[in-house]
């Protein structure tokens, strides 16, 4: 038994592996798969996957908000609280420079009424210049106040006698507004957030930016808040236009703030408050949009 074992040990390693393949693998039923065949199978599978088009149309939309320009109008409770804080500040505060001058003028007027008043000494203290009393300054300020006209909270009231039109970006300066555009979807014309259909080679944010920049007669400069959508709205097409390759659409929303720009009021644009959206958007669409619009 020693001789066969010594001969087996002296054989090269590759001959031993070859014998194992010829004997053991044939009886075990294990199938040998080459690397080339595995790569070809993976390539064919990937080609089949890429050839299958998505049955959903993709859209990128932008929720463009104009932030408040001025402070909001106070309610009656806020007016009472502001009056209380003003009274407390008035009681606890020190005398201002103008109030100090009023006291000095009052003391000077009292000295003039005294019997030992010396007018020459009074003029020497002020260098012989004509003095302007604090009361004279108050009269001058009151005259300027009569000619002062404060700016209107709604800039459209000056021309039309009422609030600015809905297409004006300067309406409701104390509130946050959202831009709506009128678009034709199928046979129906509805109000939507600005959107565009996705094209190959661009990101969804680039699609949303293109939807905003392609608006006619508009030049909006916006600051987008990140590259991730803040919401998505999915809907199926009507049965008469629905096919196996085109089931419906998915709209991905991106948040943006208006930094500059204007638009023609003749174009179908609307700047509306969050509380006014229900009068223009359809309920399913409004349900998705209302989640990420902040009433700042």
Topology:
Layout: H1 2-10, H2 13-28, H3 35-51, E1 56-66, H4 76-92, H5 97-112, H6 119-125, H7 134-146, H8 157-160, E2 177-185, E3 188-192, E4 195-197, H9 204-213, E5 218-224, E6 231-236, E7 248-263, E8 269-272, H10 283-289
Parallel strand pairs: 1-7
Antiparallel strand pairs: 1-2, 1-4, 2-3, 2-8, 5-7, 6-7
Description:
With 296 residues, the chain is of the alpha+beta class. It has helices at residues 2-10, 13-28, 35-51, 76-92, 97-112, 119-125, 134-146, 157-160, 204-213, 283-289; strands spanning 56-66, 177-185, 188-192, 195-197, 218-224, 231-236, 248-263, 269-272. It is rod-shaped and about 110 Å long.
Strand tally is 8
Helix content: 25-40%
Mean pLDDT rating:
77
Low-confidence stretches: 24-35, 47-51, 158-162
Structural class: alpha+beta
**What fraction of residues sit in β-strands?**
15-25%
**What characterizes the major β-sheet?**
8 strands, mixed
Taken from the alpha-carbon principal axes, the silhouette is rod-shaped
Rg (CA only) = 40 Å
The total count of helices amounts to 10
Distance between the first and last residues' Cα: 94 Å
SSE ordering: HHHEHHHHHEEEHEEEEH
